[in-house]
Amino acid sequence: MTITDPTTAPSADRLAAARLMLSSLGITVEDLTSSPTSTKDVPTFNVYIPIVEAAVTPGTLRVYGSYWKRIKERWGERRLDEPTATEIAGLVEHTKQNRVQRRNGRGGNCAGEHMVAAFRCLYKFAVIDEHIPASMNPAAKVPKPRRLPSNRRGLPAKQINELVDVANSTGNDPALDALIVRFHLETAARRAAALKLRLRDIDEEQCLLLLQEKGGVFRWQPASPTLVAHLLDHAKRRGCLEPDSRVLRNLNGKPITTRRYDGLWERCRKHIPWADRQQVATHWLRYTTLTFVERRFGLAVAQAYAGHETKNDALTTTTYVRAGINEVATALAALTGEPHPLAT
Question: Where are the domains of the chain?
Answer without folding.
Answer: 39-141, 157-336
